[in-house]
Amino acid sequence: MDNPVLSYKGEKIEVKKIFNCLFENEATKELIRVWYQDFDGLLIYETCSDSLRKKRKISSGELFWDYERVWEGEST
């Protein structure tokens, strides 16, 4: 079975799963966009307030403990 492939800055990246979802932290009102899950099981995201769009990593446990999904795009 083939894994999903993302195109990022002209480079193709093979990933475990594509998320493309927005999550909000109720306490801080921080919005993050989770892009995909890598092969280590970590979720790659960026904070919506970061103009540089720096990619960060978070575990799925941390994400679902601290954040609530507010929007879901297409996922594979």
Give the spatial strand order of the biggest sheet.
Answer: 6-5-4-3-7
Helical segment count: 1
Counting DSSP E segments of at least 2 residues, the number of strands comes to 7
| Topology as a string of helices (H) and strands (E) | EEEEEEHE
Q: Mean pLDDT, rounded to whole units?
A: 90
Indicate the percent of residues in helices.
under 10%
Strand content: over 45%
Coarse structural class: mainly beta
Broad shape:
globular
Textual characterization of the structure:
With 76 residues, this protein is mainly beta. The chain is 9% helix and 47% strand. The protein contains one helix and seven strands; from the N terminus they run E-E-E-E-E-E-H-E. The protein has one helix spanning 60-66; strands spanning 5-8, 11-14, 17-24, 31-37, 43-47, 56-58, 68-72. The strands form two sheets. It has a five-stranded antiparallel beta sheet with strand order 6-5-4-3-7. Strand 1 and strand 2 form a beta hairpin. The longest helix has 7 residues, at 60-66. It is globular. The protein starts with a strand and ends with a strand.
